[in-house]
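Quiz preparation item.
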């Protein structure tokens, strides 16, 4: 925890600095959510096909979902989502003739969440 999943359109593969994003995202998330950077885990999922609005070409999507242990206020979640969206905009370069739809969602992990780490 936090678990971070980033889905992004295939057309953004070369334009999205994923490693730079994660490098900055982890300390940002840890600071706002009041956790340790070492707890942050991010996975990126390239989406081969996205369909936006009426399906016109020239659209791409980046969606970040962060799940946290319960207990953060709505204000903290809002602050985090705004900060992550601002960071995201710095790590996705413009692509000619492509409109990028970026979004962030912050959720609580469910009561059945469990974790095991082994070396």
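Solution:
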């Amino acid at each position: 925890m936090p678990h971070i999943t980033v889905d992004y359109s295939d057309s953004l593969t070369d334009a999205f600095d994923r490693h730079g994003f994660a490098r900055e995202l982890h300390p940002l998330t840890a600071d706002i959510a009041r956790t340790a950077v070492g707890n942050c885990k991010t996975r990126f999922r390239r989406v081969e096909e996205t369909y936006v609005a009426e399906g016109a070409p020239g659209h791409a999507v980046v969606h970040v979902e962060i799940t946290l242990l319960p207990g953060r206020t709505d204000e903290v979640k809002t602050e985090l989502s705004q900060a992550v969206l601002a960071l995201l905009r710095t790590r996705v370069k413009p692509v000619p003739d492509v409109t990028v739809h970026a979004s962030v969602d912050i959720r609580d992990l469910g009561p059945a969440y469990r974790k095991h780490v082994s070396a």
